[in-house]
Amino acid sequence: MSIATNGDVDIYYEVDGPADAETVVLVEGLGYGRWMWQWQREALAERYQTIVWDNRGTGDSDAPDGPYTVAEMASDLEAVLDDRGTESAHVVGASMGGMIAQRYALDHDRAATLSLICTSPGRDEAVEASEAVQRRMVAEPDGYDEREVIRHRMAPAMTDEFRKANDDLLERIVDWRLAGDAVEAAREAQLAAVGAFDVSDRLEEIEIPALVAHGTADRVVPFENGELLADSLPNARFEPFEGGPHLFFIEQSEAVNETLLGFLDSHV
Asked: If you write DSSP's letter for every residue of the chain in order, what string do you get?
């Protein structure tokens, strides 16, 4: 357990893996806590030192009043790496975390590689989720308790087949979300950051190696965004995951981990 400070905001982070190995830092999506990366943390831990941290407003980090910006959250990441004394790190971000990773690479100089999972370059060029999906992800249906609301909102990010076959896991995920996700006000502050994010005209400045991975059936951040990122980044490798939903790094974790490790190993 460690705390980095960015101005008056304390950011919580955890470190695993060999102390003498290269560092991989994992950046969560909108509202999600550290639990989101457990499948990747386990796969990476033997070969890499991993840093997982709570975005501002999430889990054990401070939750200042919003709205937030992606640039602020990228500076939170810089504070974490500075506190840890990490000179260079492979930055892995999913969804909003991928936006933070892009901005981090533009604003700071410690990123060795980027791995951008189910994310987008921002609003001007981005392909948005359908109105039905956007409504579903913020809905509070009448008569639903807190657990039912979480499951209802999360449904567009998973395949129906996975949800039906993994009810016990979904119940554990709901437990993790209740314990470690952002509170509603902070989630809204993060949502404002996502809505204002746009680096589509600066992607050519990111010259470090980048892995872009995207599920072809993503309804939250549609697949076209991954194609756009891969086409716009100067040094990108694109890996589509057939049938993958937004949370394909959970549903298809073995394949994702194999791809991620292969990319990282090739740039050590």
From this structure: -EEEEETTEEEEEEEES-TTSPEEEEE--TT--GGGGHHHHHHHTTTSEEEEEPPTTSTTS---SS---HHHHHHHHHHHHHHHT-S-EEEEEETHHHHHHHHHHHH-S-EEEEEEES--SBTTTPPPPPHHHHHHTT---TT--HHHHHHHHHGGGS-HHHHHH-HHHHHHHHHHHHHHSPPHHHHHHHHHHHHH-B-TTTGGG--S-EEEEEETT-TTTTTHHHHHHHHHSTTEEEEEETT--TTHHHHTHHHHHHHHHHHHHTT-
Q: CA 189, 157, 127 angle in degrees (round to 5)?
A: 70
How do residues 207-228 score in pLDDT, each as one tens digit? 999 999 999 999 999 999 999 9
**How many Å apart are CA 266 and CA 22, to the nearest integer?**
13
118-172 pLDDT per residue, tens: 999 998 889 999 999 999 999 989 999 999 999 999 999 999 999 999 999 999 9
Closest residue by Cα to residue 221 from 126, 135, 114, 85: 126
